[in-house]
């Protein structure tokens, strides 16, 4: 029923980190870059924004924006914190967008960032924000003194100057595949994610074993120092951000936030994520949060229950209940039980990864899709709502990785009906290991 999936593996998309003091307008600017408003979720203490990495595009080029701003501005030691933030940003990004508030001018905290940025040698695009009108522009030019090159004057709030700013960003970012046109080849990108101590580094060490080829300098790639290439089962695989896995990021305060920043960025850069759970412990809030991020980012997924040596019959019973209750949203993800410590069953990981990637890249022909839609609509029409009955007229798969469908209809579909369509799509076409996105376009 499915066409052969076209290869969509591409080189790593370059990463742009946005740094600057609290309140200079970083998130306003990020929203401007993304051209949309992102949901702001506040549920980690000390973290004001949940999602920190986003896919962006300008003039047909794709890049990842990391908003490093989401930490508690009330924390003591502002200059220290902001310096640490800049160091992390420099470590994970290909280029840095340094935002200062031109209406205030340069502060000590800004100076601390400048020193870190200069030392790093990473390209920096200096942004003078809150230049809402021409009068303010004059003062902004004083920022030439920072020695970071031309200050790009913008008003994130009103959009002034943001196009020129993005042009300047593209100049310094390494070239990546054109957006939409994904280059063929290159190792698949995997992120091993999970909360601390579940066994992520044990798993990677076991997988890499003697084969470990620490590749800190792969020619022509970006953000190398933190990726690692491992030969497994006849193929090369790129493990994203293994530095973050091996070296724990333990800043005095806010290390939780930095860990999250790394996780979120790794997920965004990956094609497929391995969520490692500790099988001997209950599924935790933090596990679910990572799952949510993987789904929202639209990545392929494999769930690995580690520490299986510690799982006895009783724990097994409760685990099955937890899977039914907490992991119901990702029933489609392949699950494997492993013991990273001894290597038991880790040979099951690669086949699971391959299945998930295949599901992620599955393309259904328009003919097959519409035959299927016709069938399910006939068998199970949409319920009547206030005298009207929305109908699906036609559909097409507009994208793979993840599979994305557009349905043209005669009205809005109930959420329940959309879930029904998704469930039936999975029954019919597989889509193992991948989220599916359904976009409904009601006819005017
Ligand atoms: P962050 O803490 O650096 O992420 O800063 P925010 O994006 O949350 O912005 C802090 C405040 O500055 C908010 O009240 C914004 O509305 C305001 N702001 C952001 N950009 C501009 C701008 O270009 N001009 C003016 N006048 N205000 C801005
Ligand atoms: P990470 O923080 O997720 O990278 O976790 P680590 O790989 O550092 O492992 C945390 C702890 O769990 C270490 O003490 C490991 O030896 C232990 N561990 C890892 N895998 C297993 C396993 O399969 N079984 C058991 N019993 N312990 C494990």
Automatic annotation (TrEMBL):
Q: Where does GTP 2 bind?
A: 194-201, 241-245, 306-309
Q: Which organism is it from?
A: Nocardioides faecalis
The record lists GTP 1 as bound by 20-27, 67-71, 129-132
One MF annotation (Gene Ontology) recorded for this entry: ribosome binding
In UniProt terms, what function does this protein have?
Answer: GTPase that plays an essential role in the late steps of ribosome biogenesis.
- What quaternary structure, including any partners, is listed in this protein's UniProt entry? Associates with the 50S ribosomal subunit.
Which gene is transcribed and translated to give this protein? der
The family database entries (InterPro entries) matched by this protein are listed as:
AAA+_ATPase, G_ENGA, GTP-bd, GTPase_Der, KH_dom-like, KH_dom-like_a/b, P-loop_NTPase, Small_GTP-bd
Q: What family is it from?
A: Belongs to the TRAFAC class TrmE-Era-EngA-EngB-Septin-like GTPase superfamily. EngA (Der) GTPase family.
- Alphabetically list the UniProt keywords: GTP-binding, Nucleotide-binding, Repeat, Ribosome biogenesis
Q: What is this protein called?
A: GTPase Der
Membrane-spanning residues? none
Q: Which domain of life is it from?
A: Bacteria
**Keyword Ribosomal protein in annotation:** no
Gene Ontology biological process: ribosome biogenesis
Q: Which residues form a coiled coil?
A: none
Where does the EngA-type G domain start and stop, copy by copy?
Answer: 14-177, 188-361
